[in-house]
């Protein structure tokens, strides 16, 4: 190799490192802004004290961010003249929430870090982890990986295509998760996110009127506040303990008391691999806690922007200029 080629090769290698090989790390902000993580935890804590449900809403925001073009903070962007954002996509409209808490966190970390250091995408990952650990207890804590950057673009169409709806069956749910590099175990364990939070009647109406794989008393009770016509946005808890991150969700599936059709698809009592996982998590909170953290890290690794790609937004709702 002559010297000219050597120079080209070295330059190419140097320029490739930040983009191709950059990886998320747990200590990303330790040197540049050590206050960031404690500040986020304290704001999430206060927000949950004001309204417990917000922890569930923050967890869901991270999921909806990651499944649409990767964990890049795109879910937080408002519509612009150049693109329609994800907030008005069908699975999100009048449903995803928590944007004010994200704004509050962003303002506080930017002040403490003296500038835009922490990305909006990382704020979502940290707030999701903190919510889980606050509502579930210390065994649900996991080391979140960091160093994501923020997208300069969002797509309503991509959100409509990539977020699984509650009427999906098991093969459809699995195909959706596999399209993001996740497997059956990730599907079953991450669906455990439904151990917290609330749902609108319109998301489970079809199940309580038409499904057969449902406990009849459970369906009848839900029909009282979620009639065939009207009451679209009346809320029901997704499991019996919607403010506790625990294994109640899996126990409910064993009794055909999953709120969404997609939840009950994970347990049909036919001895499948999926059934086996639901049974395991219903009995073993430690297995659930451990596997939930592992799968959240896997989900958090979906196509992050790193190196020189993307930006660190100053306002999570808008691209920088
Ligand atoms: C497996 C496919 C999934 C489907 C079909 C699904 C569907 C839904 C639906 C329809 C709602 C209620 C929305 C509404 O009525 O406003 C909901 C709520 C929720 N989902 Fe999922 N979800 C899935 C996976 C996940 C995952 C992977 C997580 C997190 C790890 C998650 C966390 C949540 C939380 C916490 C809520 C409650 C939010 C709140 O109270 O604000 N979901 N989901």
Automatic annotation (TrEMBL):
Its main location: secreted. This is Peroxidase. Ca(2+) 1 binds at residues 65, 68, 70, 72, 74, 86. Disulfide bonds join 33-113, 66-71, 120-316, 201-226. Residues 23-320 form the Plant heme peroxidase family profile domain. It comes from Cajanus cajan (Pigeon pea). Binds 1 heme b (iron(II)-protoporphyrin IX) group per subunit. GO terms for biological process: hydrogen peroxide catabolic process; response to oxidative stress. Keywords: Calcium, Disulfide bond, Glycoprotein, Heme, Hydrogen peroxide, Iron, Metal-binding, Oxidoreductase, Peroxidase, Secreted, Signal. It catalyses: 2 a phenolic donor + H2O2 = 2 a phenolic radical donor + 2 H2O. It is found in: Secreted. Removal of H(2)O(2), oxidation of toxic reductants, biosynthesis and degradation of lignin, suberization, auxin catabolism, response to environmental stresses such as wounding, pathogen attack and oxidative stress. These functions might be dependent on each isozyme/isoform in each plant tissue. PROSITE patterns: PEROXIDASE_1, PEROXIDASE_2, PEROXIDASE_4. GO terms for molecular function: heme binding; lactoperoxidase activity; metal ion binding. The record marks 60 as: Transition state stabilizer. Its cofactor is heme b; Ca(2+). The keyword Membrane does not apply. Residues 1-22 form the signal peptide.
């Amino acid at each position: 190799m002559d010297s000219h080629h050597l120079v080209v090769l070295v330059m190419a290698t140097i320029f490739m490192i930040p983009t191709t090989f950059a990886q998320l790390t747990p200590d990303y902000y330790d040197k540049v802004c050590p206050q960031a993580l404690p500040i986020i935890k304290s704001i999430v804590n206060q927000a949950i004290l004001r309204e417990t449900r917000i922890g569930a809403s923050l967890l869901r925001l991270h999921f909806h961010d990651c499944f649409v073009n990767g964990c890049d903070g795109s879910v937080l962007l408002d519509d612009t003249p150049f693109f329609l954002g994800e907030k008005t996509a069908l699975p999100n409209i009048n449903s995803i929430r928590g944007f004010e808490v994200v704004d509050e966190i962003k303002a506080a970390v930017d002040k403490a870090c003296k500038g835009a250091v922490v990305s909006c995408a990382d704020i979502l990952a940290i707030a999701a982890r903190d919510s889980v650990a606050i509502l579930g207890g210390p065994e649900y804590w996991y080391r979140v990986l960091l160093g994501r950057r923020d997208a300069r673009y969002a797509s309503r169409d991509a959100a409509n295509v990539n977020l699984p709806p509650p009427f999906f069956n098991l093969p459809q749910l699995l195909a959706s998760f596999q399209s993001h590099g996740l497997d059956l175990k990730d599907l079953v364990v991450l669906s455990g996110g439904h151990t917290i939070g609330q749902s609108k009647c319109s998301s489970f109406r079809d199940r309580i009127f038409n499904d057969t794989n449902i406990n009849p008393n459970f369906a009848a009770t839900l029909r009282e506040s979620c009639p065939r016509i009207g009451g679209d946005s009346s809320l029901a808890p997704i499991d019996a303990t919607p403010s506790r991150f625990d294994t109640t969700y899996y126990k409910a599936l064993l009794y055909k008391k999953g709120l969404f059709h997609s939840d009950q698809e994970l347990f049909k009592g036919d001895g499948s691999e999926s059934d086996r996982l639901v049974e395991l998590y219903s009995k073993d909170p430690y297995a659930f806690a451990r596997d939930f953290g592992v799968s959240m890290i896997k989900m958090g690794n979906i196509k992050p922007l790193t190196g020189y790609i993307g930006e660190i937004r100053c306002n999570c709702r808008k691209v920088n200029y």
